[in-house]
Fold this protein.
Amino acid sequence: MFALRLVQLIEHNADKLAEGLIQRLKHSNSCNELLACVPAHELKHRALEIYGNLTDWMLNKTKAEVEERYIGIGALRAHQGVPFSQFLYAIHATKENLWDFMQQEGLLEPGDLISQMELLRAMEHFFDRALYFASIGHEGVMQNEFTRSQVAVHTA
């Protein structure tokens, strides 16, 4: 029961979390190109999509749905020219921002350890799948661009 209330609190604070993430990214030297290539409103929209629908992403979405969504996002970021390392950093920062929020709100209490562990495991599983599938999308675009450039060199 505690885990459900925790996720509902996270979803209720999705806007605050999204704003915090944007600030975290702006204050980091690890994603300058990402910030230059991706409009701030798009980054905030993606953060709200995760934080505001965390229950759905963790419990209801199938592997295929996560795969489809994050391959698409990976491909989009590659088309936008976002370096892969900065793309991964942004997803990692999304997760770290969530951890920090839970600690600041005093949500990680020892008394509810089992529920918290189940929730944390589900969150880790979601973020790991998101990273994996997003990397597939990003790599697919990069491979296609490389192949096109090789064909152009050989036909020239």
